[in-house]
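Checked the freezer inventory, then went back to the computational side. Two predictions to log before the end of the day. The first one is the construct we discussed on Monday; recording sequence and tokens without edits.
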Amino acid sequence: MTSYSPIFAPPRFCSHCGGPLSERLLDTEDRPRLVCDRCQHIHYLDPKVVVGVIVERGGRVLLQRRAIGPRYGTWTFPGGYMEVDETAEAAGQREVEEEVGLRVKPGPLLGVYSRPAPNGPGILVVVFRSGRPTGRLRIGREVLEARWFHPDDIPWGDLSFETTHWALRDWLSSRDSQGARLPPRPPLRGA
């Protein structure tokens, strides 16, 4: 039987028919799954998709301090959950505009980062690069402040997530960092 954290409670009822769900090991599966007792629909607990955009201007990267949990007050690049009716690129564009008021065209793809989460569904983080932002920097409701950082001034010890750290390291590695120092990988502490 799978154990779930009190932070993440799996669904108890079927989204198709409303019947109760029970955890079972099926012949067609290699791990226990939530299955509807009424209609037999299998409910997969899939990872959440997050899209981020590393916005660049004049050799600097735009970072923002989070005004929401988790990791309130720490630094990350614009990003958030992808909606069911949008592409990854559209999600990145929307998140940048919502969080910092800039318009960007996400691309090229910088990297895809994944990790299971011990207290809920795992995450899959898709990160794009983007240059040439237009518009005026305007702080959205999920952001305390936003600033442009030279690579040597990135607040490595105060980044929001290890995926933020990984993506910024890859961004630095993929450009002419002009001597910027790559910090060591952070300890595992959350998505």
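The second is the one RB wanted added to the comparison set:
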Amino acid sequence: MGPNLHTNVYVGVARLELFVPDARSLKEKRSQTRSLADRIRSRHKVLVIEIEHQDLHQRAAYAICAVSTDPVDLESRLQRVERTVDRNWTGHVLDWNVEIVQM
């Protein structure tokens, strides 16, 4: 059998937690957060999933996931996502935490 020719694969996950001060209902929260999530998806080609606080109208938490064979590219992509959040989110960012794992 020949040498191991497997390419390393890296998975990056960012946890984003938002405060939505103007939302008075779940419908208002989803209206505001959906536009941000859609913008992130379309600009950065990442997976965006609401993971927590679905029943609270002023908080939202998302997992933002990307896959690459280059960990530097992955880190850079998630940094661009963070800049998009900073530029487009008018509420408060409560948490931004990134983890990159080699598979």
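For RB: The longest helix spans residues 26-44. Strands lie at 10-19, 47-52, 59-68, 92-102. Let me know if you want it refolded.
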